[in-house]
Amino acid sequence: MIKNICVIVCVLIFSHIATAQSKDEIAIRNVLDRQLQAWNNGDVEKFMDGYWQNDSLMFIGKAGITYGWQNTLNNYKKGYPDTAAMGKLKFDILVVKRLSVLYYFIVGKWHLTRSVGDIGGHFTLLFKKVKNKWVIVADHSS
Description:
The protein is of the alpha+beta class. Helices cover 41% and strands 36% of the residues. The protein is built from four helices and six strands. Mean pLDDT is 90; it is low at 4-19.
């Protein structure tokens, strides 16, 4: 009897943990989906909603490290000044790894289909739960 209760309690605990992780992963994937939609609608500022609006946001790209939400937005606007340069974005998420209750690590591929020439590469994202919202606090895209 006690053995059965222990098994039931263990199953309930692990089920709760898996559900919490699933909810977090779903929330993170929703952030990425909203970014994808915003980009494909030509709305860079809405795309930036997925990032931590903080001076400590870190974006690493071919030009090096950029710190800060506003600086990252400015770089996006400079690099993608119009919808022709923005093209249509596609993500392929390759890895979603929970690091802790506050952090997730994401690895993926990105591809822009554009009339001015397609481009693509890979990215790693560090998501953090800030004020009960998942945001990107570090992005390395190449």
